[in-house]
Amino acid sequence: MESLLILVVLFIILAFGLALVRTRSNSNRRQIDRTGRTEVEAKTAEIDRQADDGESATVAEIAPADGPLTEEDDGVRDGHSEVGVLEPEPNSIATSLSRSRGPFASLFSRLRSNNDGIDAEEWTRLEETLILSDMGPSLATEIVAELRNQLGKSPSASALRQALIELLTSKFLATTRELQFSKDTKPSVVLVVGVNGTGKTTTIGKIASLLTVAGRSVMIAAGDTFRAAATEQVGVWAALTGVEVVSGQPGADPASVIFDAIEHARAVGSDVVLCDTAGRLQTKTNLMEELKKIRRVAAKSSGEVTEVLLVIDATTGQNGLRQAEVFHGAAEVTGIVLTKLDGSAKGGVALAIESQFGIPIKLVGLGEGLADLAPFDPEAFVAALLGEESDV
Questions:
Q1: Burial letters for 166-183: b for 16+ Cβ neighbours within 10 Å, e otherwise?
Q2: Cis-peptide, bond into residue 187, ω within 30° of zero
């Protein structure tokens, strides 16, 4: 009788414990749905912090399965969550450029209040505003000269604003900005290059998410074998997006790791290999030579290199021009990913890069969420940079 009583008591305790665990699990699940965060994302942030405290160089130290991916692809167009949790609404380009827009809004507000039109001093202030947005002195001077020649000495603020919108838009490259993939060869290989701290590995994770939502099978090559925690960080993003990672031992030859990943992707039929690369200072000759080697080895693999994307942090402004120059020389860059526009007052660097190097900006990072990586639209960018007429 006593044994039976003990068993009943144990059964009641067990049932109560299971109910408590289920309640806490449901509560945690609801919390994840509210915030759109997972433990994987938290781990990514922690790895980022650890990497920044380690050997990573800061930027401030530097002087459908065929055809291109478009924003009309299923999932991207509808803004669906890629990983099964409730993601926040993606940031818009207008929201992300609010800091860059501020000086232009102030300038045009002042011009509208001046009934005498625009004098020489205001033309100078316009040029200064363009320079402060990091378009660069040469480009800013060129833009102001063209506007003055087109509009005359004292145009109205409204006429100036409209002419500036049209001129800035026309200076962006008239070229495709869609990511390119091979129609005949699998896998397509996308090399992602850039200095540490620009958001390179995070960008790889976001591109992987975009491509998987668009129906492509993706593999990531953990080619940054030098940076502490780099392979682990790539693994976190792979888990978040549900893709496979091929990695080597710490300090392994990056070109070999990337070659092996491409061959493995070929064997299993993956559509795309996204290749992470080392990102120490571009002033180090050895790193640039390593990138050249990776480019050569990838070209000799069974895949086809269709993109070499350079990730640039918009907050670095004109330093991004130096990065574009050196990385383009080493790796034959085909497109730019401009990150952290939401934290920058220097959005004009986008036009400076295209104007100086002829490399199209293909994607822009507008925030921290998986969905905050968007195709670059020059018209939308210029409109967001200058704001609506009611704003000025």
A1: ebbeebbeeeebebbbbe
A2: yes
Give the whole-angstrom CA distance, residue 186 versus residue 191.
15
Query: Are 223 and 273 within 8 A, CB to CB?
Result: no
Quote the mean pLDDT of the chain.
Answer: 76
CA distances (Å), origin 110, targets 7, 161, 166, 289: 83, 12, 21, 51
113 φ/ψ angles, rounded to the nearest 5 degrees: -80, -5
3-state secondary structure of 335: strand
pLDDT at 268 over 60: yes
- Measure Cα distances from 344 to 77, 89, 196, 246 in Å: 26, 20, 18, 34
For the record, the structure tokens of 239 come out as 């888990």
Give residue-wise pLDDT tens across range 302-342.
999 999 999 998 888 778 888 888 898 888 999 999 988 77
Note the pLDDT tens digit of each residue in 47-57.
444 444 443 33
Q: Are 112 and 157 in contact (CB under 8 A)?
A: yes
Non-local CB neighbours of 175 within 8 Å, separated by 6+ positions: 360
Residues 257-289 as b/e (b if ≥16 CB within 10 A, e otherwise) read: bbbbbbebbbeeebbbbbbbbbbbbbeeeebbe
> What's the predicted TM-score (pTM) here?
0.74
Count the Cβ atoms, other than its own, within 10 Å of residue 240.
Answer: 21
pLDDT (tens digit per residue) in 57-93: 332 222 233 344 333 333 333 333 333 333 445 566 6
For residues 51 and 45, what is the distance between their CA atoms, to the nearest angstrom? 10
pLDDT value at residue 93? 66
Report the distance separating Cα 363 and Cα 79, nearest Å. Answer: 16
Higher pLDDT, 87 or 152: 152
What is the SS3 assignment for 279? coil
Can you tell me the distance from the alpha carbon of 259 to that of 148, in angstroms, rounded to the nearest whole number? 54
